Amino acid sequence: MPIAIEVLTSKHLLRIREIVGFQHPEYCYQCAKCTSGCTSAKVISEYKPHLIVALTKLGYIDELIKSSIIWACSECWKCSEFCPQEVSPVEVVLALKNIACMLGVKPPKAIQEMAKNVIETGYIQNPMNITTKDFELISREDLNLPQLKEPYKPDKWKEKLKLLIGGASNE
Fold it and tell me: Among 70, 119, 137, 161, which is disulfide-ready with 129 (CB 3.0 to 4.6 Å)?
């Protein structure tokens, strides 16, 4: 049973610390190098990994979880590579996402839809034809690409994804 977001306490900060492991969010001195290299920040101006780390350090966990900004992370891990302090903002964001899910907060519809597609097909989206500059449709077959294979042992992760999106895959 999910707990109310209002009951977040320092134990949740400790949980984030457990999840991020040997990384040290408290070492962040806000140089913003993580944000300068962030793929998501280039597209979504409100997404700033260094500020997420700062807000986490200051205890604004519930505000971050209530906002949709943590779901904007593409998990490219560039922020981790750019950080001179080895803080790894992506691990802080992943910890926040984990806590959000533990609290019963559902991811945005787009993420739920991708999870639903993975459950049903094994892929984020169905394979599709591409269009050339002359507006001709070209398929994988036309390009002599092999048929896509089914993911390995899909049943285990299908159940976990169903939990993430809140039940049956046909919602």
Answer: 137
Identify whether 170 is part of a domain.
no
Question: Where a domain ends, among 102, 120, 145?
Answer: 102
Does 88 lie in the same domain as 117?
A: no
Tokens encoding 112:
């739920």
The full length of the chain comes to 171
- Give whole-number Cα distances, 58 to 40, 64, 120, 137, 156, in Å: 23, 11, 40, 52, 37
- Cβ neighbors of 123 (< 8 A, separation 6 or more) are 117, 148
Q: What is the pTM of this model?
A: 0.69
pLDDT tens digits along 75-109: 999 999 999 998 889 989 998 998 888 888 889 99
Rounded Cα distance between 128 and 94, Å, is 30
